[in-house]
Amino acid sequence: MKQYCILFFIIVTHLTLAQKNTDFRIHSHNDYYQSVPFWKGVSAGASSVEVDVFLIGDSLYVAHSKQEIVAARTFEKLYLEPMQKLAELGLQRPENLQLLIDIKSEAYTTLDAIVKNLKKYPELIHNQAFTFVISGNRPKPIEYNNYPDFILFDYQGLEAVKSQDIRDKIAMVSLSFRNFSGWNGKGRLTAVDLEKVATAIQKAKSLGKPFRFWGTPDSKTAWNALLRLGVDFINTDQPFDCAQYLNSLMTREHTNTVFSEVYRPTFASDGKRKKAKNIILLIGDGNGLAQISATALANKGELSLTQLRNIGFLKTQSSDDFTTDSAGGATAIATGKKVPNRAIGVDADGNSLKNITEILADKGFISGIVTNDGITGATPASFYAHQKDRGMTQEIKNDLLKSNLSFFVSSASNLEQKKRIGHFNIVDSLRKFAATEKQKLAYFLSQEEASSELPIAVSTVLNYLEQKDAPFFLMVEGAKIDSYGHANDIGGVIKEGITFDQVISKVLRFADEDKNTLVIITADHETGGLALPQGNVLNNEIEGDFTTDDHTGIMVPIFAYGPSSTIFRGVYENSELLKKMLCSLGFLE
Prior knowledge:
Elements: H1 2-17, E1 25-28, H2 39-44, E2 48-56, E3 59-62, H3 75-89, E4 97-103, H4 107-118, H5 122-125, E5 130-136, E6 151-155, H6 164-168, E7 170-176, H7 191-205, E8 211-214, H8 220-229, E9 233-236, H9 239-252, E10 253-255, E11 278-284, H10 289-298, E12 310-315, H11 326-335, H12 356-361, E13 366-371, H13 378-381, H14 393-402, E14 407-411, E15 420-421, E16 424-426, H15 430-435, E17 441-445, H16 450-466, E18 472-478, H17 480-486, H18 490-514, E19 517-522, E20 526-527, E21 530-536, E22 541-546, E23 551-552, E24 556-561, E25 570-573, H19 577-584
Parallel strand pairs: 1-2, 1-9, 2-4, 4-5, 5-6, 6-7, 7-8, 11-18, 11-19, 12-25, 13-14, 13-18, 14-17, 16-17
Antiparallel strand pairs: 2-3, 10-22, 12-24, 15-16, 19-24, 20-23, 21-22
Helix pairs in contact: 1-7, 10-18, 16-18, 17-18
């Protein structure tokens, strides 16, 4: 029976933890050890700073032990004078700044000296923006009311305080974390320790005062756990790191509510040793392994993408940099050559490199591009254009008009009001796109709805291609995964990842019905240096932690499905992908 009670408690606790606590304060523990005491904690946004004091003679010194006392480091100089300056200058500070004074010497004489010191600063003791709380060696609770109104106390117990007068003198409740758990802040609290800690917090908070643990592990995992458990003051020796982590936590946690229905492939044609007739290449811009993991875990643990069996990794370095951009990455895929960053379909000397749509045009293929980016974006442009810099938009547009593409679908353009762009006929609806008999087609997705329209657009294009007798090459880009990676927006990354998987579902279904289409899914690079420190698969919750707002040099996964898909396994350069695609079509050995 006890085991069932513990299990029930843990389930209830986890449901409680799912409620994000935003009403937290940071306590700069042992603040006097900071390189710049007081100012560092306050500038980090700490609402509470802790100072240990010793009374030696008539002076109050700041130190953790008598052996550490330095004559110049007095209570007044390190804390009261800076607080006075803070008040005088009217500098930005927490709404209420608490000074937790931990008495290390004899309680009564030291507290008398503290009161005497504080009375020298009437601007502080009569200012509601400052609170002075006595911790460490303290008088007995029954004696709390013997001290001035500006002196409050840190209550360190769980016993109920019956006297209202005494309760009014208590500013907070503090307990040693080590009395309940030996957790080191890595991994998770054990079930038994979680029960002990949560029960202690519940009892402490029933006293109606803010609560703090001291002696807690000092890590992101611990800060997160304490926050979710409802601890009011998060104890830390790293106020800047703690503040940055906790203050950004709401933006780095995402609960998914829109899902990709998982398509389970038949595998009837997968891995068959026969030539593919068609290729559909899907590029998730910036979509690294962490982005795929985040999307899968937020999508009830799986995706259509994660059903696939033939998997490899691409090395993405450009010819001139450890970290590629989209132009260098996509050009390597499209042309089979490593090129400098920003180059679109040209080598380092500006010489044009033949891309896959041009190679296949000579063999009677229809080629097209679908993207929720602009058609002149670096990734799509790498499959038709030849310019030294991705910023040469007009020149890239001119290359589009001369390209071998049979059609394209992209987000809104300033050209969309026209009926034609060169030889491309612009249609104003996807229905007309599927029904038209014209050979050169363009359709523009709305700027605001480009991502949500992408799966529909891909379905329309696949229906269009199904009516053709010729083999085809189709490149589909999920461009906005990259945009949200740059913005360090985990919710956006997952949202776009879900949309991209909806596209993948449609493409896999088409490949199963067609049986002659090879599907390749990869990325040009990873964006954001994303890590996934925590989450909850049952609740579709993910915490994302980004290390950069730029691209990274990490390898990206490649998935393949259909005829000849096994040749895409392994670890290789992104520039090898063109040769493998041509091999799958029977044009190379």
